[in-house]
Amino acid sequence: MKFVDEFRDPQRVKQWVQAIQEITTQPWTIMEVCGGQTHSIIKHGLDQLLPESINLIHGPGCPVCVTPIAYIDKALSIAQEEDVILCSFGDMLRVPGSQDDLLSLKSLGADIRIVYSPLDALVLAEQNPDKKIVFFAVGFETTAPTCAMAVYQAKQRGLTNFYMLACHVRVPPVMQALLDAPDNTVQGFLGAGHVCSIMGYHEYPPISAQYQIPIVVTGFEPVDILQGLFLCIQQLERGEASVENQYKRVVTEQGNLPAQQLMKEVYQVLDRQWRGLGNIAQSGFALSDEYAAWNAEMHFSVADIQSNESRECRSGEILKGLIKPAQCPAFNTRCTPEHPLGATMVSSEGACAAYYHYRRYQND
C-alpha cells in the first residue's frame, strides 16, 4: 500500500536501528506521547531493537485512558434516564467507573449505542425526536474538531434533542505538567503526529525552550518512530533542544486552521482532571456558553458528580511513565481486558492493553 508499506520496510528499519546505535553514547529516556505510537512500538518490538541505554516510556497519549472516572460516572447516570440514547465510541464501553461500566449497563437494558462518528448521533437525533440523544465525547485535539462539528450542526439544524458530554483534553499542557513533576525522568519527547495534524506544532517551541528538551513530531509506522527517535537522540547527544517535524507528509507548523477556528467557536479552554494525573491547568475543552443548550452536563445536572479512582490500579504511574505495565502486580492477574481495573487495560491505545496483547508472557 502506497505511503504505508515503505514505512514498514524491514531494510529501512535495520538502517535506522543501526543509525541510532552509531550515535548513542549515553543513556537517554524518551517518552512517546501518543497511544498509537505506544502500540506500534510494542507490536513491532521496536524498543527491543534499540541500544539498552535507550529507555522508551509511555506517556498519557491514550484519550480513553485519561478520561476521568467522574465522567464515566456521569455517562452512566445519564444513560439510566428512560428517554435517553447514549452514544459513544466502542472502547469507552468497557472503561470502569466507580461501580460499573457502560457495557454492563447496556446488558441491563439501557439504550447505549456504539457509533463511528459523532455525526452518526446527529442522525439518531433526527430519527428519534421523542428521545434525548447524548454523545459521550472524549479525546485529544484529534477528535475534538469532529465533535465540535456535531454540536455546530445541531445548532444549525435546530436539533433540541441532541446533547454532548464533552471531555476533551489538550496535549501541550500535560507535557508541561509531566516536565514540572518532581519525579520527572523525561529527556525527550516524540510528539503525537495526529494531534499535530490538527493543531500544528507552533505551541511546542516555547516548551522546548523553557525545559531545554527536544520534541520531535513523529508518525506511527516503524520507520516513522525510529526516524523520530534518531532525530531526538541526535539532539540529546549534541546538547540541543528544538522542535523537529519527522511527520512532514501529514503535519505542518500551523496545522488545520479551519478545524482550529471551529474549535475556537464551539469550545472554551478550562482546567481539566486527568485520570491518574490529577488536575492540569488549561488542559481541557468544554462547550462554550454559546452552546450551553447542547451541554449534557448542564441539562442532566451531573456536573457536580465526584468519584474516586481504584487504589489498586497503577495506571496513573504508567501514564506518567514511572513504571511499565508489567511492573503492576495486578497486570495479567487481577487486571485483564475482560476484567479491567483501569482504562489503560481497556482502550485500543492503552499501554496495558498493548503489553497484554503482545508481551504478557514476557518478563520486562
Fill in the keyword field for this structure:
single chain; 364 residues; alpha/beta; Rossmann fold; six-stranded mixed β-sheet; 15 helices; 38% helix
Provide an overview of this structure:
The chain is an alpha/beta fold. The protein has a single domain, classed as HypD, alpha/beta domain 2 (Rossmann fold). Helices cover 38% and strands 18% of the residues.
Concise overview:
The chain is an alpha/beta fold and 364 residues long.
Beta-strand residue fraction = 15-25%
Please tally the helical runs, counting DSSP H or I stretches of 4 or more residues.
Answer: 15
Q: Which regions are unreliable across 5 or more consecutive residues at pLDDT < 50?
A: none
Please bin the fraction of helical residues: 25-40%
Rg is 21 Å
The termini sit apart by 33 Å
Q: How would you sum up the global shape?
A: globular
Total separate domains? 1
- The first-level CATH class is given as Alpha Beta
Layout of helices and strands:
Blueprint: H1 10-23, E1 28-32, H2 35-44, E2 54-58, H3 63-66, H4 69-79, E3 84-88, H5 102-107, E4 112-114, H6 118-127, E5 132-139, H7 144-157, E6 162-169, H8 171-180, E7 188-192, H9 193-199, H10 204-211, E8 215-218, H11 222-238, E9 243-245, H12 257-266, E10 267-274, E11 278-287, H13 296-299, H14 315-319, H15 351-359
Parallel strand pairs: 1-2, 1-7, 3-4, 3-5, 5-6, 7-8, 8-9
Antiparallel strand pairs: 6-11, 10-11
Helix pairs in contact: 1-11, 2-15, 6-7, 7-12
